[in-house]
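Can't attach files on this board, so I'm pasting raw text. These are the components:
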Amino acid sequence: MTDKWNAIVVGAGHNGLVCAALLAKAGKQVLVLEANEQVGGAAITREFTTGFSVSACAHLMYQLQPKVQKELKLDLQLASRDMSTIALAEDGKHVRIDGHSVEGVSATDQREYRAFHKRMTRYADLLRSFFNKPPPRLGTRNAKDLVTLAQLGFDVRRLGRTEMQEFLRIIGMNIHDELQERFDNGLLKGALSLDAVLGTHLGPRSPNTIMTYLYRLAGNRGRVSLPAGGMGRVSDVLAHTARESGVTIRTGMPVSRIIIDNGRVAGVETANGERFDSYTVVSNADPKRTIMELVGARHVETGFTHRITHLRMRGNAAKLHLALDGLPTIAGLSKKDFAERLVIATDEHYVERAFNPAKYGECSAEPVVEMTFPSFRDTSLAPTGKHVMSAIVQYAPYALKDGWTDKTTSAFKDTVMTTIARLAPDIESRTIASELLTPADIEREFHITGGHWHHGELTLDQFYFVRPVCTAAQYSLPVDGLFLCGAGAHPGGGVSGAAGRNAAKTILAREKVA
Amino acid sequence: MSIQEVPQGRLRTPFYSRLAALDTLNAWHEWKGYSSADALYCADIEYFAIRNACAVFDLSPMTKYRIEGTDSLAYIDRLVTRDMAKIRPGRVAYAVWCDDRGQVIDDGTIFHLREGEYRLCSQERHFAWLKTAAIGFEVSITEETADIAALALQGPTSFSTLCGMGIEGLGDLKPFGLMHVDFEGAELMISRTGFTGDLGYELWITPDKAEALWDALFEAGKLFGIRAMGTHALETARIEAGYIAAYVDFLPADATVRTGRTRSPLELGLDWLVDFKKPNFNGRRALAREKRNGSTWRLVKLDIDGNKPAHHSYVYAKPKNNKSDIGFITSAVWSPVCKQNIALGSVRMPHGAVGSTVWVEIYYQREMHWSRVMAEATVVDKPFWFPPRRSATPPEPF
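---
Top answer:
Structure tokens for the assembled complex are below.
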């Protein structure tokens, strides 16, 4: 028997690292086992061609929670903060969205947008207030749960009668209807639609897209930033903090199973056959992988495996990385605009149309694109004078009808390049090297089932009290000693650290009771 | 385009021709899509055949699933509450299975036919649940109800009848054992199981040999008083044996809508089937909690004063001045062989401890007018009918 660990964290994603660091700070002996050679999970910076580095999966930071930063005393350098969003138009008449104001639209739209943004921010703030505590259990008499529940009711009520009614009216709605009701400008509607559906298997006319939009706003009122050194730097800082707090991190150690002995967790076994003992195992992997692959159906009950296997987590976002010998030319953009977030979603129908084929296992013919040029402000990512582009592209369904092969991947890459070239005609000629990661690649590289970066669709039926599924929504899975700390748990994906922090709090509180 | 013939109305079992030939009452009901006889000549005579000679019951409509694959044991062990690792090939286990909340979905028998190959039999259909339970297991589940013709041969002369048919080695077959023999070139499975609480066997064969099996059985049983029987006679026998039935003594958990209408195995007197030494099975967490905190209901076997069957009666703690009932009767019958007025019922804890007295409110009609008695009843532990011959190995010949 090797050393006994107080807790083993499976996966050194950013949530795993936050959880490990907080547990270690509370005096626990913590071991983190990471399958890849690099820590960070989907929050890594990677050189994809000589001299050019990019955030390989997550690339924009919306919501690293202040509580996480404070408790772990993180010192993060940002390459740019409060980035605007520019909705690109082929005629160069772009629309620029900057917090609560918008340029390039009519005065009415401007006024409407201000009101829309104010209201949405208010609801998002409400949502955020629940991010940093574990969801309450329903139907219990536990005082803490009841207090949280009462707080939830109170906070919703505190919006005021009219606003509460409005909140309850729109929370399950689709964003398309709301945008149609308010705005005229297609680019504005397109850009807001894109915000609502990025990273989901939803179109702007799918129900629940107001909720996904609010989720994006909730992190930090929609403010977007780029960490210096790419997303990998965030993970490196977290790993450093974790190590300082006494956490042992071992990379290149894929966990092949979580050992269950007599109905409770006893440790983990890695692919090389090494065994590590602990009565507490915290999984940073997604819920499906955790239960169906690492634990095994025989150690949980039928209804539970049923719910877990039916968890909706169909990734739809591909990642495009370009190494460029210079910035491309986009009509109507000044040079400094390349520091912002550029989106291709020409109107409110464009996004829905892009989604249509995804329902049938096909890629968008005219995909939705969110582009950033991180090297513009962060020279460490590319050689002098050269640039990298990091883009999220939708829709590229995980379960592609023809399967993801070299052929289908390269065909989709061509589609994306053509789409971008419509706005930046010289993009092809400026490209030195390129890489497209499909959801299948994301699944393989980052070990996320379905390549879905939220570890499960962020919809009301998989949210809060029931995230990922009921009987597992409070970070503890129905196997004694087994916890979940990743995006599959409340609140969800994005580099926020909230799930990791909440999981650590839950584990420590449990111990106190025991 | 081809036209597929779909049978309309009730299906006939492979034994239908033989049953119909013996039938004089024309009293049939539907059992999972099949015609099944209430009785063929007289329910009482058929009942006495079970207890004094032997009676044949057509249980072909009984739901049967074949479970096989490398994970079959692990699968079944997680499905049911008892330890299936102890059930070796050639053995049969009575078992109960629950949902995640520890509430009974159904009970049935599981035949370990050969290493890793099982047959699960139950009154109700459960394909959806069994398939759901198979998520994550290397196991195949096949519905084989229509592929197997089955007969129950129950009663003190059943052993002698089968020996008369030329079956060898039957004497060594213990209760809940099974064996395979040859019958006219087909494989006949014989298990020492039944629903009557008496000496008895169940016979399983392919449908094409069904009629031949029936004929051979009745030929051999001629001197042993063999008779065909219907479900009425069986119902009396199963209550005497203290066996519970789905939709009568409990509701399948997946068929209830209201909360509190389901029952856990602990509430059905099946705690002996719940093996908490097993690290995991469906419902374990909920049942462990129930075990700790106490159950809500208790199944009771009642020996009731008088001779009026307590159908659908309320059960009370006292003969009078009750504020409310403590439960109700689910199955009741006058037992001819025990000469007892017996019943199964569901009462709220802590009522109904073994040996305690409860009161049963029985309504009965005499020449249109209703009368009511408060009958004293004793909670008993053992089945009402449990003859030594049921477990004697080898059984005594007749």
